[in-house]
Write a structure and sequence with these properties.
The protein is of the alpha/beta class. The chain has two domains: about 5-145 and about 305-350, Rossmann fold, CATH 3.40.50; about 145-300 and about 375-405, Rossmann fold (3-Layer(aba) Sandwich). About 40% of the residues lie in helices and about 15% in strands. The chain starts with a strand and ends with a helix.
Length: about 400
């Protein structure tokens, strides 16, 4: 029977998935392999009748530079009792290529172990994907899709900023980011937003809604002192991962709840929440400022990949073939800034519980500190006297004091 490889994608979309799929498929087709695409991720792989597509060169050439995913994706995480050998044996699968985040990679390792125990030998190689840029790749190596999402996000954010200038309003912008603030920071820094709020900046104090609102007001008042009546704040949605349910519920926003009793944050606009809370506080302070919410999220996930990600994803796809020929398995494929293909093993980035720790924004790096201390607008000691016309206690809105930074 002809040897084959199987490709599946898990989690949510990111620009460049089709480029990875096409690049992997082309190089294996060239060597005479069947290339089978699996719809619905792991849910499809272990279903009674998997929904598959067999790739040929013409189809790969068609999807290579297109956004979205030719393979329908799924967040399904199968239990061990769902595993079966049928599909792998019946199709003579020699390699399972998974595209996704850390959960997708960990599941691939579990499957590989199960197959080995049942005398079915295959390799599995993972292509790390997320627009959040939070997988623990080597320093300076982005996750694919991040650069495109940042570029598209910056275009939207720049338009929003121009609207603020034109209308004399403020905008509260929320950007995707599961726990890390890479996307919000990258977009905000690119557009010179006067306030950027990400989870990592609270490295010396606990994150709270009160502090987030004070940081926004600090920027608004500083701009008033400078004679600027407009602006924009960008907040990473990741801040919500560090708030308690009690504090989230205290916002008085109407939430739906999951089976575990947790507020379903995915059903509401984080920008709307923070804008409502900001307006409430501004009214208490008798500060007249109009603000509007803007959510930047799903618009970024299926856009056409940028030139950076087109090349990067092509290298990752070809890199899968390179690692396969080297006999590598149970690893992620990475490409360093020089274009070299390097395997990264999950065991080297997992904690003692087998969980992959997210890569956070390095808040102490020179790049980050340059942006926070020089590009943002906020109240500091020299502004106290001028700020008293708006705030009774300007010191409470001092950026450095709120964060407990030196």
């Amino acid at each position: 029977m002809k040897k084959s490889i199987t490709i599946l994608a898990g989690g949510g979309p990111a620009p460049g998935i089709n480029t990875v799929i096409a690049s992997v498929a082309k190089v294996f087709l060239k060597e005479g392999f069947r290339v089978i695409g699996m719809h619905q991720g792991y849910k499809g792989l272990f279903s009674h009748k998997p929904d598959t597509i067999e790739f040929d060169f013409a189809f790969c050439d068609k999807i290579m530079n297109v956004g979205g995913s030719a393979l329908q994706m799924s967040r399904h995480k199968p239990k061990n009792e769902e595993f079966k050998t049928d599909f792998f044996v019946n199709n003579n699968v020699k390699l399972l290529v998974t595209i996704g985040g850390d959960d997708t990679a960990s599941t691939a390792n579990r499957i590989s172990k199960f197959l080995a125990e049942n005398h079915v030998s295959i390799q599995n190689i993972h292509v790390p994907k997320t627009i959040d840029n939070d997988l623990p790749l080597p320093e300076g190596t982005p996750t694919f899709g991040y650069q495109t999402a940042k570029e598209t996000g910056a275009s939207i954010a720049a338009t929003v900023y121009e609207d603020a200038r034109t209308s004399g309003n403020w905008f509260v912008v929320s950007a995707m980011g599961r726990e890390a603030g890479h996307l919000a920071f990258g977009i905000g820094a690119s557009c010179h937003y006067p306030m950027i709020i990400i989870p990592e900046m609270f490295n010396e104090t606990r994150i709270s809604i009160e502090k987030i609102i004070k940081l926004m007001i600090s920027s608004i008042i500083k701009r008033k002192i400078l004679g600027i009546d407009y602006g924009a704040v960008i907040i990473s949605e990741g801040v919500f991962h560090f708030l308690t349910n009690t504090e989230i519920e205290a916002t008085e926003i109407n939430f739906t709840y999951d089976d575990h009793g947790h507020p379903e944050l995915g059903n509401v606009s984080k920008a709307h929440i923070f804008n409502m809370l900001l307006q409430k506080k501004l009214k208490e302070l008798k500060v007249s400022v109009k603000s509007r919410p803007v959510e930047i999220g799903y618009e970024l996930r299926c856009v056409t990949p940028s030139a950076f990600d087109l090349l990067y994803c092509s290298l990752l796809g070809i890199g899968v073939h390179t690692l396969f020929n080297e006999g590598k398995t149970g690893c992620m494929v990475t490409s360093n800034p020089g274009g070299d293909i390097i395997p990264l093993y999950l065991k080297d980035v997992e904690d003692e519980n087998g969980k992959v720790k997210p890569r956070l924004v390095n808040i102490q790096s020179q790049k980050t500190q340059l942006v926070f201390r020089n590009n943002l607008h906020f109240i500091h000691e020299n502004d106290y006297e001028a700020a008293k016309q708006y705030l009774e206690n300007p010191e409470d809105y001092d950026f450095l004091k709120i964060l407990n930074w030196d």
